[in-house]
Amino acid sequence: MSLFDHVADRTVARLEGLSDDEYRWKPAPGAADLGAKRAELVDGRGNPKVTTIAWRLVHVSDAVARHPLNGLLQPGFTPSARERPRSALAGVDHFRRSYDEWRCVIEAVGDPTWLEPLGPAAGPFADSTALAVALHTADELIHHTAEIALLRDLYRHRKGA
Questions:
Q1: What is the rounded distance in angstroms from the CA atom of residue 92 to the CA atom of residue 16?
Q2: In the chain, what are the domain boundaries?
Q3: I need a surface site. Which of 1, 59, 79, 140 has the fewest CB within 10 A?
């Protein structure tokens, strides 16, 4: 858990001072923002589009709190219903609350369960273990929050700033 906590705490610290303008800033023409459908996340040639900090932050929040396997790892788990955060402050709060929910799911996994296959209820992840799901989530958390940090750097150094 210390790795996950470190990444979450580092992310929240890195987001200090995030303005609403920066949160919704489109770093490239046609950048995807909140509400973009899956098909809108790629250009006409199939390349992924650049996204806003808002889109990335909601995506990583949903990747942890709304992971489809959370209910298997903690039976009865239901993520909190939330609106898409339209402001920077709401986005950071959404991330923190989503992470805290996911942390509770992971803490509830018993030691013997970590290395057992999840089974048929996990669908295409039937042969995966809770450990594999946690490691995949760590990868998502680390790489998307690093992208958010890069977008903050680009915003700070944009032309005319």
A1: 9
A2: 2-156
A3: 1
